[in-house]
Amino acid sequence: MSLRLLLPPRGSLRLLSPLHRHQTPRPPPFRTTATGVPQRASSFFSIPIRAFTSISGMAAGTQQQTVEVRESVELTEEEERIFARLLDVVRHFGLGTQLRVAGGWVRDKLLGKGSADIDIALDNMTGQNFCERVNEYSKFMGEEQKGIGVIQCNPDQSKHLETARMLIYGIWIDFVNLRSEKYAENSRIPTVEIGTAKEDALRRDLTINSLFFNINTKSVEDLTGRGLEDLKKGLIDTPLPAKSTFLDDPLRVLRAIRFAARFSFTLAEDLKEAASDEKVKSELGSKISRERIGHEVDLMMSDKHPVNALCHIRDLGLFYVVFAFPEKLEPPALDKHDWLCVSHLEAAWNLAHSIGRSVFSGGSDSKSQDEQQRLCLYSALFTPVRNMFYMDKKSKKVPVVSYIIRYSLKLKASDADTIVNIHVASEKFAELILLLESNENLETVKEKLDDEYLEIPTDLVKRVFAGLILREIKGFWRVALFISTLVYPEVGNASDSLGKQDELDKMKERYISVERSITELDLDGVWKMKPLLDGKAIMGVMQVKSGGPLIGKWQQRLVKWQLAHPQGTMEECMEWMKQSEQQSKRQKIECST
Fold first, then answer.
1. Locate the Poly A polymerase head domain: which residues (predicted)?
2. How far apart are CA 257 and CA 316, in angstroms?
3. DSSP 3-state of 402
4. What is the DSSP letter of 155?
5. Helix or strand or coil: residue 169?
6. For the chain: N or C, fewer Cβ within 10 A?
């Protein structure tokens, strides 16, 4: 017979904490940011732009807010089912195990947010052993057994305890035993033992992440005595002294920043002092792998408040630790590049909110809007260093931006390539903007497009030039145009534009105007345009038996001709090529005589 635990109705699991004993029930939370603007837990554009008119000041400030914290944990039907199954396992085998959900799930539930990140802490066995018991129980019930994944401990990377993971009712659950950590003198690697729930709570990164939900007793446990209080204050602090916490695992500095930015919480003063400590910064740069640093930064950049996070990184003196530059730069890096980079990110954030999410709409075949947004923000952040290079081991000139993305953050090589391409295209868009707005550089652009075989009609120069740019950058053309508006000379420096609504309006108007022009020229998706003639056909027209640079040049001319003649046919194209070749030969004969 299956043993089933009937949990109380949803919403009836009460907090057992002295901090809440005498409080009356509150309505569901509607949290406000430090600026007083209501914050909804949704996508990039869920927050009004006025919330971002003074990001730098917000990040640097110490004003605390009052956060609405729920009086009870509300379980979903899936969570009730999962927890009931885990308790069935404990009862069936007489394990006597206390099951506690740890960390972020508890925090998010108390803030009224959903969370699929369920980490179970066990008080008397390892995660792998418990997962094996779950499978034994599944077999006993005649159900399918699930695979168990084990993440081994890695003390060198501050991963001190083995974690087991398995799928339960369609949800991945992590299992790990409660632990205590003791450090020998002059050692950074602790002796890890099964510990008490309080010992485990005290060794966690932040007080707001030290809360437990005890599945057995159906209660929230605040064993540091500060987790609920700091959550209500909107305060980011550590259970133990911040410096020792960060020296234990320096990545916790970036986690503290990420959570402060995500929830618009305030960093505690002693935490900021510890994060700025030279030894902590040195340990972050040397002890933590670049993959882990890059992962944290990527989470910040993909979250709701990336500007807040980067302001913290800058203000705490961590910018050059996180975004390590290569040696022997051309031109040399300046001390102020951290301020310039974050200022450009802030300007981009404000402008993106002003324009709307269409900035990240690159077409059905391009990457998702979220991915375009992410790469756009990286492109904006590194705009001030887009023209900086270094020499690699093969004496090849490489953009510094590529180094930062590939090696400092260990992100995908394709990310680095895309961001560099966006910067290159943004420079070309600057020329296009000038051409579209004033025709001032019309002759210069036309001269670049023309050669002895092809002369672009003056009224089609804009279409051909814009089309070539879009064919290079493809689905990221709106992002490249967006970045170009940030650095367009007439608008001025992005860092000089912050807080100036008129400058923001000018950039917005310029972006919308150029985007409209490109659309009216019927160029959106022009990178999908197939050449009317392939290399073999061109060889036939030119009456040559082998390819080579000559055919490559004619392929480039063919693209320009098609952009100038969007309704042109294959026959018309071949006729143009023949006439151009004959005319060129006549001109050469005339010049020789």
1. 99-236
2. 10
3. helix
4. G
5. coil
6. N
Compute the 3-state secondary structure of the chain and give helix, strand, coil in percent, each to the nearest 5: 55, 10, 35
pLDDT reported for residue 489: 53
The DSSP 8-state label assigned to residue 31 in this structure reads -
Taking the C-alpha atoms of residue 285 and residue 415, their distance in angstroms, rounded to an integer, is 22
Examine the pLDDT at 292 and tell me if it is beyond 90: yes
Spatial CA neighbour of 143 closest among 120, 122, 163, 167: 167
Strand partners, 313: none
Decide the pairing of beta strands 171-177 and 118-122: parallel
> H helices then E strands: how many in the chain?
25, 16
What's the pLDDT tens digit per position in 454-490? 999 999 999 999 999 999 999 999 999 999 999 875 5
Domain 65-234 has CATH 3.40.50.2000: no
Sequential DSSP letters for 505-536: HHHHHHHHHHHHHHHHTT-TTGGGPPPSS-HH
**Are the C-beta atoms of 389 and 330 separated by less than 8 Å?**
yes
383: how many CB neighbours lie within 10 A of its CB? 26
Where are the domain boundaries for CATH 3.30.460.10 in the chain?
Answer: 65-234
Q: In this structure, are residues 137 and 112 in contact, taking their beta carbons and an 8 Å threshold?
A: no
Strand boundaries in 374-466, DSSP class E: 389-391, 397-399
pLDDT digits (tens, 9 = 90+) for 71-112: 889 999 999 999 999 999 999 999 999 999 998 999 999 999
Long-range Cβ contact pairs of 323-329 (< 8 A, separation 24 or more): 323/404, 323/408, 323/409, 324/285, 324/404, 324/407, 324/408, 325/400, 325/403, 325/404, 325/408, 326/390, 326/400, 326/403, 326/407, 327/390, 328/390, 328/391, 329/388, 329/389, 329/390, 329/400
CA of residue 180 relative to chain centroid, distance: 33
Task: State mean pLDDT over 530-545.
Answer: 90
Give one DSSP letter per residue of 361-382, joined into a string. ---TTS--HHHHHHHHHHHHHT
**Arithmetic mean of pLDDT, 216-238:** 96
The torsion angle over the Cα atoms of residues 145, 151, 153 and 159, rounded to 10 degrees, is -130
- CA-based nearest residue to 430, from 389, 386, 388: 386
Per the listing, tokens 């000038």 go with 434
Q: Is the Cα dihedral 68, 69, 72, 78 positive or negative? A: positive
Residues of the chain with pLDDT > 70, as a percent, come to 81
Q: Do the Cβ atoms of 9 and 38 come closer than 8 Å?
A: no
Mean pLDDT of 303-321: 97
Q: What is the pLDDT of residues 337-375, one digit of tens each?
A: 999 999 999 999 999 999 998 898 865 445 688 999 999
What one-character-per-residue DSSP string does 234-302 give? Answer: TEE--SS-HHHHHHH-THHHHHHHHHHHHHTPEEPHHHHHHHT-HHHHHHHHHHS-HHHHHHHHHHHHT
**pLDDT at residue 50 is higher than 50:** no
Q: Specify the 3-state DSSP secondary structure of 154.
A: strand
